[in-house]
Amino acid sequence: MQLSARLLCVLAILLAAQPSHADSAAAIGAARGGDDRPSPPCSPVDRAALLGFKAGVAVDTTGILATWTGGDCCGAWEGVTCDAAMGRVVALQLEAPPPKSRHCMQGMLSPSLGGLEFQESLVVRDMARIGGAIPAALARLARLRQLYFEGNMLSGPVPGSLGGLRSLQYLSLAGNRLDGQLPPELGAVSDLE
């Protein structure tokens, strides 16, 4: 049974909320009719973007980034979900495991995340020490539907460039140190719930 690429992307977003990447990969395989063919390896562009994020993290007590080794980010990299047919990253979900008071990442959000052009879900939640500004480069994520940057130390204004995310449906920036007014450009995101 063949599923359309769009349906696979939607399925990948739903599976990104699952607790384990291995479970997500198994469910995608099952959704493809049990097809046991290996997925294509991660796109070199996506791998470079993820490694750019990793380079901006000075401390990781969550253990998540310790899994980010080897050439295939679509394999066993925790928090990374890829489209099984294309080998492109469609979701990045990084959440501190309990107890959240003892697990965090310390560093900055890298503008390299703007290079994940097929990404539909971006979650960096409860990392406590991820700081700096929200990168304006995220405006390049034309397919992005979910953006959750909750429970971090992000500061500065919300960039008006996020108003260019026309597919965005869910946005949460709670629990940060952001300041200023919400940019009027966000009003142009008509599907925002």
Automatic annotation (TrEMBL):
Signal peptide positions (record): 1-22
InterPro entries, A to Z: Leu-rich_rpt (IPR001611), LRR_dom_sf (IPR032675), LRR_N_plant-typ (IPR013210), PGIP (IPR051848)
Keyword vocabulary terms for this entry: Leucine-rich repeat, Repeat, Signal
Domain Leucine-rich repeat-containing N-terminal plant-type: 46-83
UniProt subcellular location: Cell envelope
Family to which this protein belongs: Belongs to the polygalacturonase-inhibiting protein family.
Full protein name: Leucine-rich repeat-containing N-terminal plant-type domain-containing protein
Taxonomic source organism: Miscanthus lutarioriparius
